TrEMBL record:
One of its GO terms (molecular function) is methyltransferase activity. It comes from Citricoccus muralis. The keyword Nucleotidyltransferase does not apply. InterPro entries: Alpha/beta_knot_MTases (IPR029028), Ribosomal_eL30-like_sf (IPR029064), rRNA_Methyltransferase (IPR051259), SpoU_MeTrfase (IPR001537), tRNA_m1G_MTases_N (IPR029026). The keyword Transferase applies. Pfam families: SpoU_methylase. This is RNA methyltransferase. Keywords: Methyltransferase, Transferase.
Length: 273
């Protein structure tokens, strides 16, 4: 049995079809690829690759700069049927089309999508992302949610994909472990949560907003925290579907916080008591 490192396949041709998954295809195009049942996503950095594997993600191939090969030998040994490709930093960059912060990549099969019901089952705190389209913000929200006891995340149809390369990296791989689901019928889902014992709270500065440290909020048994996009905030139709609006009081003429910062403050303040 090969140790993976010595069997690594050296690449130099940017158009090599064996690494098409890593080439300048957009991640959106990757999702539509037909070579895998549920499409492919890219995990970047050895830490993120290891976290993805630990969370049960299945690798299609590995692609690492020479200097990373030895440190990942145990990973290759655990997946003897998965091809390992390698090359210089320059080759990797010309194939991937993006600057690599870490020279370790894996192409992985997208996991089966979860249902909304499975995310809510047994949860006490969930975050709901209302068209948060920025991948960095989505990744940062996943990281804070995981670290502060939020049980899951629901995403509106136009929120960014948590399995986009940048979202994965910023989340430090928490997108693999924290349950999440894409919601098809957004306002209906919020209404359904309200009808089944959830308090759905919009984090937004509106005329009706109560302060974040209102003690009745953290005392709620099941709380959904809705977060909005940078430019638009929580959309009016979403605000209408929420049970309560909540604000983090602002000082010194600063209008609002970045959504991932507001999320972290709220997750901590409203953790279940
Ligand atoms: C940058 S803010 C959007 C501000 C938007 N331009 C507006 O004026 O409504 C992005 C999101 O972060 C959250 N957020 C930011 N600051 C907040 C605050 N002080 N209180 C409550 N939520 C806040 C909200 O969910 C908001 O939709």
């Amino acid at each position: 049995m090969s140790d993976g490192v010595s069997a690594a396949i050296e690449l130099s041709d940017p158009s090599d079809p064996r690494v098409a998954a890593y080439s300048t295809l957009s991640d959106a195009a990757l999702r539509r690829t037909t070579d895998a049942e549920h499409g492919i996503f890219l995990a970047e950095s050895s830490v993120v690759v290891r976290r993805a594997l630990a969370a049960g993600m299945r690798p299609a191939s590995f692609f690492l700069a020479h200097r990373y090969l030895d440190s990942m030998a145990d990973v290759f040994a655990a997946h003897p049927d998965v091809p390992v490709y390698t090359g210089t930093d320059e080759t990797m960059q010309s194939i991937t089309g993006f600057h690599l912060h870490r020279g370790a990549l894996a192409a992985m099969y997208r996991p089966q999508a979860r249902s909304v019901a499975s995310v809510l089952d047994g949860a006490r705190r969930v975050a709901l992302l209302d068209d948060v389209a920025d991948h960095t913000n989505v990744g940062a929200i996943f990281r804070s949610a995981t670290g502060m006891g939020v049980d899951g995340i629901l995403l509106s149809p136009r929120s960014a994909d948590p399995l986009y390369r940048r979202a994965i990296r910023v989340s430090m791989g928490t997108v693999f472990s924290l349950p999440w689901a894409r919601v098809e019928h957004w306002e209906d889902t919020l209404a359904g949560m309200s009808d089944t014992g959830w308090t759905v709270a919009a984090l937004e500065l509106t005329e009706q907003s109560v302060d974040l440290d209102d003690p009745t909020l953290a005392a709620r048994d099941r709380l959904g925290l809705v977060l909005g996009a940078e430019g638009t905030g929580v959309r009016p139709e979403t605000l209408d579907a929420c049970d309560v609006h909540v604000k983090i009081p602002m000082y010194r003429d600063v209008d609002s916080l970045n959504v991932s910062v507001a999320a972290a403050v709220a997750f901590w303040q409203l953790r279940p008591v």
